[in-house]
Amino acid sequence: MSSRWTGLLSALVVALCAPAGALAQDLIGDDPPEGTPLSANELEGTGRTMEAGKHLVSVAGRYRYGVSEWFQVGTTGYEWMAGPNLNLGFTPYADDKHAISIELEGLTDYRFGTKAGTATAIYSLGPAVGSRFNVGVAFSWQDVDAEVEISWKEKDAVVPEPDPVDISARFVGIPLHLGYDLAVNDVQMVRFWFNPYVYYTIDSEQDLDKPIFPFNSGIAYYRGYDRFRVGAGATMSNLGLGILRELEALALDAERDIPAVPDLLPMPFLRLYWVL
């Protein structure tokens, strides 16, 4: 196994063991764990938006603000290095056991010539604090205008470097969301999710006329403290592996020794944020 995959698996082990240790410590302790309740209003992929007057600020730059009980605005700070982005969220209906949210997101990435927009509707069956089912559907649009340049690490005059690969395309997609939030108590939760996608290329330089079916799934442990929250776990996805396989084929044609592209790509999952 290559050192790249060994390091990736090690990161996954750490991501899973750290929250498991924290969970065991809280469960073994005699006193109930301290902290403010984890609410569906602050979590991604639920039928509720931020509470009025509350701010969510994450280490990764994600920001959400509850303008009212039914409307939120937000953005992701680090993405502004590539271009502007905006999130608008609405909660047209919510009671003690049911909630529906609608989120609109848009971004522009000048580095890769990408413009994207997504509209998502999510229904939650369960209270704001406690266990719940989440199910949602979205419509997404993405416009990519970019080329991928391929360069050999070791220059070879016999085997020239291939021309840049034009990956410009327009995609439309219907992502789905299925999730379950298992509340251990008010401040501890285990989240499960599975997100299948259907993407179709409506215009591509590579003549991609077939739909693709990427997905991602994951599990994460969340812990709420006074204002700080942590979520850690692991995700699994096949998203983007098609492009990696094309690059792998080009390298093999040029008799280059590279690691094989896996069928699934495991990645650590980490969320660190404050609710103020």
Describe the protein.
This protein is mostly beta strands and 276 residues long. The chain has a single domain (3-275), classed as Outer membrane phospholipase (ompla), Chain C (Beta Barrel). It is built from 2 helices and 16 strands. Strands 1-2-3-4-5-6-7-11-12-14-15-16 form a 12-stranded antiparallel barrel. The longest helix is centred in the N-terminal third of the chain and has 26 residues, at 3-28. It is globular, with a radius of gyration of 21 Å.
Whole-number average pLDDT?
82
Q: Strand order, main sheet: write it out.
A: 1-2-3-4-5-6-7-11-12-14-15-16
How many beta-strand segments? Answer: 16
Tell me the CATH topology: Outer membrane phospholipase (ompla), Chain C
**H/E series, N to C?**
HEEEEEEEEEEEEEEEHE
Taking the alpha carbons of the first and last residues, their distance comes to 45 Å
Strand content: over 45%
Based on secondary structure, the structural category is mainly beta
Which CATH top level class fits? Mainly Beta
Question: What's the shape?
Answer: globular
The total number of structural domains is 1
Number of helices: 2
- What CATH architecture would you give? Beta Barrel
Low-confidence stretches: 1-5
Described by strand count, sense and barrel closure, the largest sheet is: 12 strands, antiparallel, barrel
Overall helicity: 10-25%
Indicate the radius of gyration in whole angstroms: 21 Å
